[in-house]
Amino acid sequence: MPEGPELHLASRFVSRVCAGVVFSGLVEKSEVSKNSEVPFTCDAYCITATSRGKEVRLTLTPIKEEGEPHGGKACQPMDIVFRFGMSGFFRFTAGSELPKHAHLRFYTNETPRRALSFVDVRRFGSWEPNGDWQTDRGPCVMFEYQTFDKPICEVMLNQKYFNGIGNYLRAEILYRLKISPFMKARTVLHGLLPKKRELLEVKPEQGQCQPLQDSEMSLSKKIKMKMESPDILDLCHSVPMEVINMGGKGYDPEKPDDYSTFQAWLQCYYVPGMKSLRDHNGRTIWFQGDPGPLAPKVSKSPKAKRKGKKQGEDKTDKQQGVKGEPPAKGIKKEKEGAQNKRVKSHSESKKTKENKRKGSRSSEGRKQKSKLEREEDAPGTAVPRSQHQRSMQTKSEKDS
DNA sequence: GTGTCATGCTCGCTGAGCCTGACACT
């Protein structure tokens, strides 16, 4: 059941049923659950919920009673972040009729009392008292969709999407693609979608569109096309590989201070004549040409202020924006930051490997699905056919 | 009664294991 939409609906359910309801006392955990106790107790509190991706956050907020003495033992609000595993959900029932597998219970202060329960049949779900959204999760596909409206140069430094790309690589890649650094990431990535004519081939004799089979385009033709017009993903692979192939003459030269090979290879980053701007995260992006529609408003650099003009304002100036310092100096300056970046990349590579494994596992799972299931699984279908059939059968059996 | 499968995630390794319930099959 629980994917993003289900978790969001669960948060709405909690907020709806708990609106105006006062909860009281301890938060009760089932004995069998291995999750941690929730160290929260309060005479009167309310519950609200929000969601982000596959997480739901319950906020327990104490209600201040009138006449409560100041300086008394006041309860503190608490956030509890839930992950639903394979079978988690919330139910609001009478306290005497707790659902089976209700592993965390919040009781109302009414008589008879009612209970909001976190129900989890398989116990793969978890909760984290005083928790927050997991930091290694990407943006919520439902409510942080606008993340992809950020400039491509900023998205490229997000290691969740481009694990391994740093400041010099993004500059080189965008330069080679002739892409404005402040173009919307969505626009650039949308360009990766196959064009209609590549996806569909009209067979006049049938009057139908058929998917173009891989085999219908020869491998050599594909390679030729790729070499002629590589896309951003191609370059995110090939450009770093070029650096690797420099051996000991790349960014971290084996000979101290011998940046000559690397400098000769750079086409944009710190190259005299190229422009540079600070992106919205304060990182300097090097580029050529128009910065793009989302470029930040340029504040006057001290030099420009003295000259009385904004960066990039003077169209006659071929070097719009901040001109680069001599390459070697700039490279050395960047090295510290790059080293930090490498440490971060290392810690994140673990996650990437996991994701790859998951991907391969899920594809295995798909292979195991029957042909019927594959054909009838519609995008967004919450219940797989096999399980859906089972539950429907169960229901009909019960009904009968 | 047994085996398999299910929408997630972690550990520590490239799959196994955590869990329960429903269903198919013998």
UniProtKB/TrEMBL annotation:
Q: Which GO terms describe its biological process?
A: base-excision repair
Give me the stretches of Polar residues compositional bias.
Answer: 384-394
Q: Which UniProt keywords apply?
A: Chromosome, Cytoplasm, Cytoskeleton, DNA damage, DNA repair, DNA-binding, Glycosidase, Hydrolase, Lyase, Multifunctional enzyme, Nucleus
Record region (Disordered): 286-400
GO cellular component term, pick one: chromosome
**Annotated ranges, domain Formamidopyrimidine-DNA glycosylase catalytic:** 2-125
What one GO molecular function would you report for this record?
DNA-(apurinic or apyrimidinic site) endonuclease activity
The record's listing under Pfam families reads: Fapy_DNA_glyco, Neil1-DNA_bind
Do you know which SUPFAM superfamilies this protein is assigned to?
Glucocorticoid receptor-like (DNA-binding domain), N-terminal domain of MutM-like DNA repair proteins, S13-like H2TH domain
Matching InterPro entries:
Endonuclease-VIII_DNA-bd, FPG_cat, FPG_N, Ribosomal_uS13-like_H2TH
Its subcellular locations are: Chromosome; Cytoplasm, Cytoskeleton, Microtubule organizing center, Centrosome; Nucleus
> Which portions of the chain have biased composition (kind: Basic and acidic residues)?
310-320, 331-352, 361-374
Q: Where is the composition biased (Basic residues)?
A: 300-309
Concerning PANTHER family, the annotation shows:
ENDONUCLEASE 8-LIKE 1, FORMAMIDOPYRIMIDINE-DNA GLYCOSYLASE
Q: What does this protein do?
A: Involved in base excision repair of DNA damaged by oxidation or by mutagenic agents. Acts as a DNA glycosylase that recognizes and removes damaged bases. Has a preference for oxidized pyrimidines, such as thymine glycol, formamidopyrimidine (Fapy) and 5-hydroxyuracil. Has marginal activity towards 8-oxoguanine. Has AP (apurinic/apyrimidinic) lyase activity and introduces nicks in the DNA strand. Cleaves the DNA backbone by beta-delta elimination to generate a single-strand break at the site of the removed base with both 3'- and 5'-phosphates.
Q: What is this protein called?
A: Endonuclease 8-like 1
What organism does this protein naturally occur in?
Acipenser oxyrinchus oxyrinchus
